[in-house]
Amino acid sequence: MPELPEVETVRRGLSPRLVGRRIVRLIQRRKDLRLPMPARFAARVEGRTVRAIDRRAKYLLLRLDDGQTLIVHLGMSGRMTLHDAASAAAHPFGRHDHVVFETDEGWQVRFNDARRFGLMVLAADEAVPGHKLFKGLGPEPLDATFDGATLAARLAGRRTPVKAALLDQKTLVGVGNIYACEALFLAGVSPRRSAHTVRGERADRLVAAIKQVLQRSIEDGGSTLRDHVQPGGELGYFQTRFNVYDRSGAICPTPGCGKPVRRLVQAGRSTFYCGRCQR
Question: How do residues 94-126 score in pLDDT, each as one tens digit?
Fold first, then answer.
C-alpha cells in the first residue's frame, strides 16, 4: 500500500499540472471502487479549477474552486499518472484506468487501480476535517509540532510492541511497515520494546528517525516494490537505501556490528531489525 512518502510524491507530481488548471472533462469508467463514486461525478467536477492539492495521512485532497474537495485514496495498488496529448494518443485506456481527468492545458490524469481498494469522495471544504475518513487519525509525523514528547504521550500506557503502535494510524499517520522498520533501526529501538517505555531521549531519537526516513523517501520518489510509480511514470528508488527492511540474513550496516539482520512476524507483518544495535 502506498504510504505517506508515496502519496506525498504523487501530490508533488500532480500539482504543477493540476493546480490552477480547469478540469474540462471527467471520464468515469466504472460505478465504484472501494466505495461508490460520487453522485453526478462528472457534472460536479467538470468546469472546476483546482485551487490546491493537499495531503492528510494517505489521502490526497484536491481543492476545487466551488468549495468542494475531492478526497482520493490510492488503496493497495492505485496510481495517478500524467499524459500529455501525444502520450494519451499513444496509450489507449487500460482495463484498470477507472477515472480520467482532462485539463484545459491538454493534460490527462489517469487513476488506475487494479485491485479497486482506492476511493474518490466529494465533500465540502469545511466538512473535510471532521469527515469520517479522518476520524481518530493521529498527528502528521512531518509537522514541526510532532516531537518526542508528543509521541511519548500517544504511547503512554500502551503495552503493545512499539512497532505495532507505529503502524496504528491513531498513533501517527502514514508510517507503514517499511518506514517503521527503517526508523526503529536508525533510532536504535527494538521493535519488540513495549510502546509505553518509549519516552524521553529514546522518543526524541525515534521521532528524529521517523522524520529522516520519510523525508529521504520523499526525496527519492518513494519506494517502488510493486505498484508505486510517480505521476510522470518514474519509479521511486528509496528501496535501494533500505538498511534492514527485507534484508533478513544480510550483515547489519552499522560499522563494526557484524550481526545478521533478523526477521520476525508481528501482528501478521514481517519486521526486520538488528538484535545487537536495537534495544
Answer: 999 999 999 999 999 999 999 999 999 999 999
* Backbone dihedral angles phi then psi of residue 126, each to the nearest 5 degrees: -70, -20
pLDDT tens digits, 129-153:
999 999 999 999 999 999 999 999 9
- The verdict on 24 and 130 lying in the same domain is yes
Residue 249, domain CATH: 1.10.8.50
Task: Point out the catalytic residue in the list 25, 192, 216, 269.
Answer: 269
Residues 120 and 12 in one domain: yes
- Report pLDDT for 231: 80
**Helix runs in the chain, H state only:** 4-18, 41-45, 85-90, 148-155, 162-167, 177-187, 200-219
The count of structural domains within the chain is: 2
Could you confirm whether 3 is annotated as catalytic? yes
Helix (H, G, I), strand (E, B) or coil at 22: strand
Is 269 annotated as catalytic? yes
For 123, the domain range is 4-134
Encode 36-72: b = buried (16+ Cβ within 10 Å), e = exposed: ebbeebeebbeebbbbebebbbbbbbbbbeeebbbbb
| CA–CA gap between residue 271 and residue 262 (Å, rounded) | 8
The predicted model scores a pTM of 0.93
- As to burial, measured by CB atoms within 10 angstroms (0-12 exposed, 13-18 middle, 19+ buried), residue 238 is buried
Q: Which of 58, 63, 110, 247 is catalytic?
A: 58
Residues in CB range of 264: below 8 A, 6 or more apart: 191, 192, 270, 271, 273
